[in-house]
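#data-curation
PF: Archiving a pair of folding outputs for the training set. Convention for this channel: one message per protein, sequence first, structure tokens after, nothing in between. First:
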Amino acid sequence: MSGKIIAIGNLKGGTGKTTIAVNLCGALANGAGHPVALVDADQQASASAWLSQTGEAGLSYHVLPLDSTSSAQRWLRNIRDLAEENDYVLIDLPADLGPATQAAVASADLVVVPVTPSPLDFHAAAQVIKLLRGVREERSNGHPACLLVGSKVDRRTAVGQGIEIALKEFKEPVGPSVCQRAAFVSAAVRGGWVGAYAVESPARDEIAALAKRVKRAAA
């Protein structure tokens, strides 16, 4: 049985998608016996640079940018091959509507959309949702599922406190939010996921809660 393909992205940079992608991979692989692959489809290759500093048991990463529609079928074959070898394949997407985003959404079981408390992020998220709803109309299985995730949330602000309510306006499932925390920055510097760096921390708890919801949403 093939593993689940999970695309992570928004059409605006700075949404924390790489932080969520890398830490979700770590949480899904950590102690659960789930082999997990991270596909870095972003030309900036931030996710692979993060993970190249150290190894995580059960977690592999693959640099597979896609900048040409003509190469999409070969790229998708690589993704599906990884899904045959792993329980989860997470794709860190570029911040645009280019061929990688379109191909990933077309093949994904789940699209995770990180959204910061910003009008520009909400506008970009709306475009991703429009794309995935169009794909749903073409597929007979109701996929891809969608999970909107508040990202870089500051609970001290009114907009940070109300982000989950605001996200529900999109009429798609809303997952646990991930706050702006220094532990995520420190984990990136050390090259691992936050659960390996800060075992007992709110940051680790947030990622663990999100991973649990992602597993349900992708099932």
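PF: Second:
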Amino acid sequence: MNKIIRTIKLIERHVKGLTVPIVTIVSDKWHDPYLVLVSCILSLRTKDKTTHEASMRLFRQADSPRKMIKLSKPALEKLIYPVGFYHTKAGVILELSKRLIKEYNGKVPASEAELLQLKGVGRKTANLVLGLGFGVPAICVDTHVHRIPNRLGWIKTKTPEETEYALRKILPKNQWIKINTTLVTFGQNTCLPVSPLCSQCPVSGLCRKRGVLSHR
């Protein structure tokens, strides 16, 4: 087992039993690409707890594009408040739902190119929908997935997109989908952005600690 896979396995054991990201919870609960997509949109620049509560409220009222467009924008805003930029996100979700009905018969497309054509969908969201929504190997890079591999010394990149392509080269495809859940959970609980808990970290001895100015 190479060093990277060994490190991943140690981290997976370390985070087992901890609360995973909301989008993973939605995927495990409903197995629906549309709900994964909507929860991704809600999660942008919003804490997981807030996103989780908003997603549950919303999905009890509307769990498909056709049900979603029956909601007025003010009603949708009320359901998802207080997620960040809830006014904008409500509009994005409604327009997205209308487009899915018009162009895809209410289904989320399963290709990266088509997903990226949808308003409000960037690489992070597209890859999360492909991976968690469709089971298509894809690496979703958020702030944790960008920071931690650089900190560990696996890669040396400056942008999330560079990180995505660098990780594709060093990770076997069977790790692509789950690496986001693993590293986000790890990054939220142990490998914190500032002053990480290195004394509690199972891979501290395998980490180069790049960019770490202080740790606990």
